[in-house]
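SUBJECT: A protein chain and its fold
Encoding: whole-number codes for local backbone shapes
RECORD BEGINS BELOW THIS LINE
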Amino acid sequence: MIPLTISQAPARCFLYAAWTLDIDSESDRLTVTKSKFALRNDDQEGKDIFSYEYGTDPDEEYPEAHLHVAGESPLLEQLCERTGADKRLRDLHFPVGGRRFRPSLEDVIEMLVAEGFVKARPGWEDAIDASRRAFQAGQLRAAIRQDLGPAREELEALDRETAT
């Protein structure tokens, strides 16, 4: 649990961040198999305002990367009445980019600053951008390793464009 404050003032909210790592059987590289980033009003477990979750469990029926939001939705309640589904807003798994293009911790931090929930020190954008680029570069490398064909095709097309 990370108290979100840049001074000695008490934190007004908390960021929960957790990762589970394992060795990828295909590449022998360390990889994230599960992660969760959540915003909470206090440091109590299980009281997420929202959470981004990621997991590679093949038995899970929900999208690997998804968003949960706490709240009430009269429109969702109406839909559940019509369909017989028994869901609350926090039960839904909103897909967010899949395995390779899921939101990063940097995206969550940027949103918290932009929405005015936390204050940031000068220069925070540069730190977030550099860290996000590193995350995205790693995801791109992993995506290329998983499917070389499209990467080769694009590089060949770029090579043809620059040759003309």
Q: What stands out?
A: The chain has a mean pLDDT of 92. The CA atoms of residues 50 and 69 lie 4 Å apart. DSSP finds four helices and six strands in the chain.
